[in-house]
Amino acid sequence: MITYREGEMAKSKSGHDRDKIYIIIKEESEYVYLVDGKYRTIDKPKRKNKRHIQLIHCVDSVVGEKIRNHELVDDVEIRAEIKKAGKTLLL
What is the pTM of this model? Predict the structure, then answer.
């Protein structure tokens, strides 16, 4: 069984946002709430079915730790973390 943790990165597998990278900020029964810091901000996360995302297993980040500890995170930090992860995924 796959576990979806707050602060992990995920890639959309379906929908108009296919192949877009997000960070999980909340997990419910069959849905996760995703943010990208630009179009989907902390104030307005995207609700997506767990079957429609793929987890990206990368090194735990500072932003991920902040989200898991329920500390304040702003959209600039989220964008920077996704950008940094995107560069490492291309290598």
Answer: 0.89
pLDDT tens-digit map of 32-70: 999 999 999 999 999 999 999 999 877 567 888 899 899
State the pairing for strand pair 46-49/53-56: unpaired
Give the separation between CA 72 and CA 90, rounded to whole angstroms. 29
Length of the chain: 91
Q: Give the number of C-alpha atoms closer than 13 A to the C-alpha of residue 6, restricted to the C-beta side.
A: 14
| Residue in 87, 35, 38, 88 with CA at minimum distance from that of residue 63 | 35
Question: Can you name the residues that pair with 46 across neighbouring β-strands?
Answer: 34
Q: Which helix (H) or strand (E) holds 76?
A: helix 75-90
**Range 9-90 has CATH code 3.90.1570:** no
